[in-house]
Amino acid sequence: MSAATRPVCVLVGAPGSGKTTVGQFLAAELGVEFRDTDADIERLAGKPIPEIFVDEGEDHFRALERAAVAAALASCAGVLALGGGAVLAEENRAALVGHRVVHLSVELPDAVKRVGLGAGRPLLAINPRATLKHLMEQRRPLYAEVATATVVTDGRTPEQIAAEIIPLLKG
Ligand SMILES: Nc1ncnc2c1ncn2[C@@H]1O[C@H](COP(=O)(O)OP(=O)(O)O)[C@@H](O)[C@H]1O
Ligand SMILES: O=C(O)C1=C[C@@H](OP(=O)(O)O)[C@@H](O)[C@H](O)C1
Ligand SMILES: [Mg+2]
């Protein structure tokens, strides 16, 4: 790791916007590492995110997430996907300044279809549609604040979305 190590791009957006899926396509296409702070958190905690929420609560998860975001921004030279709620922390938003941050936007109908019953996403375990609607309204300004570009994902395949991001990464 060098002092100049930084992600090629950071993906933010609501749950179901496709950060993890599109990020994997994009990294493969660019031939770079793919990193996801949710996977980093699960590896360090030694358990899946729903178990962290049940055993230690959301505040503890957010603390792990702040540490994971800082570590990944300092050490990832590829494509970095954040969890949908990472932008809630002012510390994370400040850490994203100066990075190339792509907001994968999604409207409620596609997000609901993609997250289904919310399995694996503890915040969406109860009434996923209403919860997602509320989360998206609360976070929309925060995604806009940190993003240097926005790519619409509704009705498009992960391959199409990755292909649209690639030209944005030049320069
Ligand atoms: N553009 C897309 N079109 C259709 N399904 C998608 C798309 N992007 C992601 N998905 C599906 O939606 C679900 C959530 O995607 P994921 O990448 O985990 O989203 P995020 O990481 O933003 O929460 C997965 O089942 C994935 O296969
Ligand atoms: O929206 C959120 O607060 C969360 C989104 C999840 O990531 P995805 O956005 O990748 O689903 C994961 O970090 C955790 O369940 C909390
Ligand atoms: Mg994800």
TrEMBL record:
InterPro entries membership: P-loop_NTPase (IPR027417), Shikimate/glucono_kinase (IPR031322), Shikimate_kinase/TSH1 (IPR000623), Shikimate_kinase_CS (IPR023000)
Cofactor: how and how many bound: Binds 1 Mg(2+) ion per subunit.
An example Gene Ontology CC term for this record: cytosol
Compartments in which it is found: Cytoplasm
Enzyme class: transferase
A Pfam family annotated for this UniProt entry: SKI
Transmembrane among keywords: no
Known cofactor(s): Mg(2+)
Residues the entry annotates as binding ATP: 16-21, 121, 156
Binding site for Mg(2+): 20
Annotated catalysed reactions: shikimate + ATP = 3-phosphoshikimate + ADP + H(+)
GO molecular function: ATP binding; magnesium ion binding; shikimate kinase activity
Alphabetical keyword list: Amino-acid biosynthesis, Aromatic amino acid biosynthesis, ATP-binding, Cytoplasm, Kinase, Magnesium, Metal-binding, Nucleotide-binding, Transferase
Residues binding substrate, per UniProt: 38, 62, 84, 139
Gene Ontology biological process terms from the UniProt entry: amino acid biosynthetic process; aromatic amino acid family biosynthetic process; chorismate biosynthetic process
PROSITE patterns: SHIKIMATE_KINASE
Pathway where it operates: Metabolic intermediate biosynthesis; chorismate biosynthesis; chorismate from D-erythrose 4-phosphate and phosphoenolpyruvate: step 5/7
Function as written in the Swiss-Prot or TrEMBL entry: Catalyzes the specific phosphorylation of the 3-hydroxyl group of shikimic acid using ATP as a cosubstrate.
Subunit structure: Monomer.
Family: Belongs to the shikimate kinase family.
Designated name of the protein: Shikimate kinase
Taxon lineage: Bacteria, Bacillati, Actinomycetota, Actinomycetes, Micromonosporales
